[in-house]
Write a structure and sequence with these properties.
17 helices, about 450 residues
Amino acid sequence: MKADVRTHPLRLVFAGIQPILYGWAVLVVLGIFSYTIMADSPSLGTTTWQDVAGVVTGWWLTAFGGSLHFDGVAISLPPLLITLVTFLGLYFFVRKLPVTDWKDTAVFVVAAGATTALLGQLAPAGSNWWLAVVGMVVLASLAVLSSKNRTDWFGAGFFNTPAGRAIYDGLILARRVIVAALVLGTIGFVTAVVLGWSDILSINSYYILQWHSNVFMWLFQICYVPTLIVWSLAYMVGAGFAVGTGTSFSALGAESAPLPAVPILGALPQPGSGTPWIIAIVVLVVFLLGMRQSAAFPDMKEALITGAIHVGFVAIIASILGALAQGSIGPERLAITGPEAPLMAGLGALVLGLPMYLGMIANHRTARAKYVAWWKNVREKSAAAKNKTAAPTPRAGDDAGGDQSRSEHRPEEAVEVVDDGGAGSPANPHSPTSTTAITAHTAPEAGRKKP
């Protein structure tokens, strides 16, 4: 029997340290390179490269929930591109290693958290590094969780029960909705940048920058692109976002105030009544997605339960996205930027989760069978009503004429007419009229004996 092969703890430690160190080192090198190019600028004063490394480290911490304190100003809005790249690095380093139990997971996660804590000591005094450690621990745990095979984590135990499968399937549905919503948010962000490109360039022209400084400014803004995509999603579902106190940008309406001169903010919509039709488009797209997912649930009860669980997960994930995309970018009124997590939860469930749920139910095979039966019933009733309307209506005198016609063909009345003694009577057997009449009216009785 082949013994289980465990991953050596040092390999797990290196897997947890390397992506963090690589990401941090790249940013610090870029910061120091920028400082070296602009070293003769009077605005730098007595700033040294060690100071630059500390500021860059503090800014790097904001990607995981920490904050940078610089010249009395707190910066905490996370550059989610750095967060995403770090997560992918952790994922690709750990996915190649067998992680057999919680002990292996703990080694990997603790290594990532400890590395973040050590690097945090380089940040300027007052910077919050311990929250970044918590964020890194969560990120490393998600990397391990997502790198495992489904059967390892969800194929046994609680997740093998009906309740566990319903929770797991609800989470998968919520993930698909959120991914679709982020795609819509990306489309909205790109559209806003294209429409506001002239304003972006105009703001960028306010700065007298050399080409290398311009490059670094755009790299800095690119790091916030995922953050801005979440803002775009918040705009499209109606939750909105703020860029400082007294501002609100939402599809339901926009209110603005003096904004910082950051070029990418030129893509913000103009103040006005808003564009609520965007919310309708989001609802329609998610509803159609729900119709496609209905085939995965043969039983209507299963679809109802799993769909309800999925709505709850959508609300939770939307609130987490809202929390990740908010923070401070400056003093006073600029201390509040991004969407509000509670609003993201409520409107995320209403605009994203509920339409998906209704689409699943509306296109379920049980519902379709009811539609077919109802339509068949409607067609049958319509055909019956049409046939009834098409039946001929009796005209005046038709009953009398019909009775008279029928009476003329009665044998008794024919005999009475013949017995009248006229030209057609039996007394005159040579009368053709009488012979025809008698023959015609007595034919049915030909089998009787003659009197």
